[in-house]
Design goal:
It is built from 2 helices and 4 strands, in the order E-E-E-E-H-H. The chain is α+β, with helices and mostly antiparallel strands.
Length: 76
């Protein structure tokens, strides 16, 4: 899995990189985090679903997006 993701329109610089086959490097501005890729994805998936539940709740279930579908793709 090769990827680099930048979020240039945010007030902070966020970057994900594959460090090696088993680890992911996340940098936020000048802070670095190396994480096991599988653990990171599992946690991101869990918290992302929690965030989607929150969006559903605060929008009275009227907010529509493909966020959960994208999370499912990430999990595979």
């Amino acid at each position: 899995m090769k990827f680099k993701i930048y979020f240039p329109n945010t007030p902070i610089k966020i970057k994900f990189e594959e460090k090696n086959k088993e680890n992911l490097l996340l940098s936020v501005d000048e802070q670095l985090l190396v994480s096991n890729t599988k653990e990171f994805i599992e946690t991101f998936y869990e918290k992302g679903n929690g965030f989607a539940d929150f969006l559903d709740y605060i929008s009275n279930y009227t907010y529509k997006s493909n966020f959960r579908k994208e999370l499912e793709k990430l999990k595979k």
